[in-house]
């Protein structure tokens, strides 16, 4: 794949030889249901011990028996970070790259409108991953990894470095997203020209 500019290539060269998210499992259907599919037991009324199911039309509550057995433990016990199923294409203006970011709690899941990017049993780690995903640095590395408009695939994340999302990390996740970006720029030895490019082409996210 041909990257879109020399600056993006230079940044990708600084991150491609470290552990990256491209080696992890992405799930384009977080609980096995397509965008338009709805479990048979779905109701809008809140019912205790049911799984909260989010799709493009709203929030539903479904029986756990409508969830695939292979995914049920994860759905019930882990935090899941999901994002809109499609990555935005290259444009000449500034862009978000990633949209529709959600943090789902245990007993929550969603349809194929979103792609599952990260799971953990630790709430703090999930919250820190959301912060990472919202950094301009992270989204630039995702932008470097794709060539067409479409659903997430592991290839999109091959330049996106894995991080330690615990309190032992070399990144202080308690800081603002803007400050975390600065920490990442230093960690990967980005030049001022590379930093200026990222700041100019990637929109801030709160």
Which structural traits does this protein have?
16% strand, 8 strands, alpha+beta, single chain, 206 residues, 3-stranded mixed beta sheet, 3-stranded antiparallel beta sheet, 6 helices
What does the model show?
The protein is α+β, with helices and mostly antiparallel strands. It contains six helices and eight strands, in the order H-E-E-H-E-E-E-E-E-H-H-E-H-H. The strands form three sheets. The protein has a three-stranded mixed sheet with strand order 2-1-6, with no helix packed on it. Strands 5-3-7 form a three-stranded antiparallel sheet, sandwiched between helices. A two-stranded antiparallel sheet has the order 4-8. A hairpin with a 2-residue loop joins strand 1 and strand 2 (58-62). Helix 1 (6-15) packs across helix 4. The chain is elongated.
User: What is the count of DSSP helices, taking H or I runs of 4+ residues?
Assistant: 6
Globally, the shape reads elongated
Strand order of the largest sheet: 2-1-6
Structural class: alpha+beta
Low-confidence stretches are: none
Mean pLDDT: 88
- Tally the beta strands: 8
Helix content: 25-40%
Largest sheet: 3 strands, mixed
**Strand composition percent:** 15-25%
Distance between the termini: 31 Å
* Secondary-structure element pattern, one letter each: HEEHEEEEEHHEHH
Radius of gyration from the alpha-carbon trace, in angstroms? 18 Å
């Amino acid at each position: 794949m041909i990257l879109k500019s020399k600056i993006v290539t230079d940044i990708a060269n600084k991150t491609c030889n470290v552990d990256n998210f491209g080696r992890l499992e992405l799930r384009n259907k977080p609980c096995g249901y397509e965008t338009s599919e709805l479990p048979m037991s779905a109701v809008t009324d809140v019912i205790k011990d049911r799984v909260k199911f989010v799709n493009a039309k709203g929030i539903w509550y479904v029986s756990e028996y409508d969830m695939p057995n292979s995914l049920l433990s994860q759905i019930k016990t882990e935090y899941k970070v999901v994002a809109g199923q499609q990555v935005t294409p290259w444009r000449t203006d500034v862009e978000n790259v990633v949209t529709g970011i959600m943090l789902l709690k245990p007993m929550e899941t969603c349809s194929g409108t979103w792609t599952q990017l990260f799971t953990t049993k630790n709430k703090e780690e999930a919250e820190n991953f959301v912060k990472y995903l919202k950094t301009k640095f992270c989204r630039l590395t995702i932008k470097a990894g794709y060539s067409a408009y479409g659903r997430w695939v592991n290839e999109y994340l091959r330049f996106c470095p894995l991080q330690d999302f615990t309190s032992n990390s070399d990144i202080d996740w308690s800081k603002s997203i803007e400050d975390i970006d600065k920490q990442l720029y230093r960690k990967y030895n980005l030049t001022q020209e590379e930093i200026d490019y990222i700041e100019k082409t990637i929109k801030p996210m709160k």
